[in-house]
Write a structure and sequence with these properties.
Layout (H helix, E strand, L loop, with lengths): L3 H22 L2 H22 L14 H26 L5 H32 L3 E6 L2 E7 L5 H12 L7 E7 L1
Parallel strand pairs: 2-3
Antiparallel strand pairs: 1-2
Helix pairs in contact: 3-4
Length: 176
């Protein structure tokens, strides 16, 4: 059965897993808010030292469609992880079921990391807010743009495919 060492390991691993999922799914606005407080303090100090500097503010808004997609995807991911955690912590589950649940959790976390990495890459390359959803060999990309451009969609598909060795089925959708 499970001895104390295995129980502690499982407990600590679950805690680390929960914290890492929380960090990955943490809204970026929270991080920007905290960093803007520090830059505001620094800019006030700089204004006192030099009167010639001009103060500019940049307001970044995200599309409601992309926000809704992110919230939906995060809720679905959280539900799946919760159901897998139940399997892991259930004493009646077999070792094979627990291994499958653990592998599935690992796959979900890796997909979430890949999605975040692809969103950042597309933001840097094309300067558009994006939402990326990976499901097996299918990648769905939603771009925050009113203009539907086939050449841009083709470039995005090539950029996403360059991250994978295997053939991925990539769809690009434009929403405003």
């Amino acid at each position: 059965m499970i001895n104390k060492k295995n129980l502690w390991f499982l407990t600590l691993f679950s805690l680390i897993l929960v914290l890492s999922v929380y960090y990955i799914t943490m809204p970026s606005e929270l991080l920007l808010t905290n960093s803007s407080n520090y830059t505001t303090k620094d800019s006030k100090n700089n204004e006192k030292t030099s009167d010639k500097e001009t103060k500019t503010t940049v307001k970044v808004e995200e599309s409601e469609a992309i926000t809704a997609l992110r919230v939906t995807a995060d809720e679905k991911l959280e539900e799946e992880l919760d159901s897998l955690k139940v399997i892991l912590t259930d004493t009646k589950s077999s070792a094979e079921e627990k291994n499958k649940a653990f592998e599935k959790m690992k796959e979900l976390n890796m997909n979430k990391g890949e999605e975040t990495k692809l969103e950042e890459k597309l933001k840097e390359e094309f300067n558009y807010k994006t939402f990326v959803k990976i499901d097996g060999d299918q990648v769905k990309v939603v771009i925050n743009s009113k203009k539907h451009d086939t050449t841009l969609a083709n470039k995005i598909m090539r950029s996403v495919q360059s991250n994978y060795e295997n053939k991925m089925y990539i769809t690009v959708q434009f929403k405003a």
